[in-house]
Design goal:
The chain is of the alpha/beta class. 43% of the residues lie in helices and 14% in strands. Keywords: Hydrolase, Lipid metabolism, Membrane, Transmembrane, Transmembrane helix.
Length: 330
């Protein structure tokens, strides 16, 4: 019995030692751009879809507005059209943005339908944004974004990550020499493995599977001894707006109950995350929270020890970071 006790104590002592002083480190963020953000003592400002509560999401106007504010990173989503163009659009379906029950891949780029007059916002119950104030009311090409904003970090999720789409995105990244300013990823781990096989030099964000795996290893003390396959942990904070939105779109009582459980589970993870984020930072892994849109949510994220905040309200986040001396471009 004593052997088991001393073995248990020895295991946790060894785990804690390598947790505080990790020997497994990543070198993916070796480029000058990433080193600058890693070394500065500020919070990375990330504009979700360009800031979709201030401008129509994933449009050149939204990206330009966020860029002019001084955002560190533009977040966007990519799909491929029938004529093999890579466009910036969150939903592969055109229903929410255009009112058309079809998918992007069914249209040539020049034939894509126009946006609706009012577009429903994700993560916000009963909120809409008018398209009438947008001077660029169309889906931009990813290539145009790369050309227009050559010196900003870009976080991209590939919505339809089959080999042809991933290769086309990679070709554009290489064409404009953006390997050092791109973080990419997809929804599932197998899809991230495809991204890695096509270009292992481009950092990848965690999938949901990857996040759950890291937390499981963390809570069992095994994390310091395992490699982490991806490079940037981007976790949902599960804000009040997000929770109410999820309840609104739930199709059954059981789905609503699942959302209640998940909401409480995310709160619990937030309470135990600060040491984990410290360890990940030591291993060269960025941690971002999404999608946060007010001071209460920003403060909750900072208490957890995150390195970046993704927001639909880039102006509000900038003002908050300046007020708290956490803005990196002062």
């Amino acid at each position: 019995m004593n052997y088991l006790f001393y073995g248990f104590i020895g295991y946790w002592a060894l785990s804690l030692t390598f947790f505080v002083f990790p020997y497994k480190k990543k070198n993916v963020f070796k480029h000058q751009k990433y080193q600058k953000y890693r070394q500065r003592k500020s919070i990375i400002h990330i504009s979700h879809r360009g800031g979709c509560r201030e401008n129509l999401e994933n449009t050149m106007q939204a990206f330009q507005h966020a860029y002019d504010l001084g955002t560190d990173c533009l977040e966007m989503d990519l799909c491929m059209t029938k004529d093999k163009k890579i466009v910036v659009l969150h939903d592969s379906s055109l229903l929410r943005m255009c009112g058309v029950e079809a998918h992007v891949k069914e249209y040539n780029y020049a034939d894509l339908p126009k946006f609706l007059e009012r577009v429903r916002l994700d993560f916000a119950p009963n909120d809409y944004i008018s398209t009438s104030t947008c001077k660029t009311p169309y889906m931009p090409l990813f290539e145009d974004v790369l050309k227009k904003f050559p010196d900003v970090l870009i976080n991209v999720e590939i919505k339809t990550p089959d080999p042809e789409v991933v290769q086309a995105v990679n070709d554009l990244i290489l064409k404009y020499q953006r390997q050092d300013t791109i973080i990419w990823g997809a929804r599932f781990q197998k899809q991230n493995e495809l991204l890695k096989s096509i270009n292992p030099a481009i950092p990848r964000f965690f999938t949901v599977e990857g996040i759950l795996r890291v937390y499981l290893l963390y809570m069992t003390g095994l994390l310091p001894f395992f490699d982490i396959p991806d490079d940037s942990m981007q976790a949902p904070l599960y804000t009040d707006d997000f929770y109410l939105w999820k309840l609104q779109i739930a199709n059954s009582t059981s789905e609503k109950f699942q959302q209640m459980l998940f909401h409480n589970f995310i709160w619990f993870l937030g309470l135990i995350s600060k040491p984990l984020f410290y360890h990940l930072h030591k291993r060269g892994i960025f941690v971002y929270y999404w999608v946060l849109n007010n001071e209460k949510e920003y403060e909750r994220a900072l208490k957890a020890g995150c390195h970046g905040i993704m927001t639909d309200c880039p102006t509000v986040l900038k003002q908050y970071l300046i007020k708290n001396k956490l803005y990196g471009k002062q």
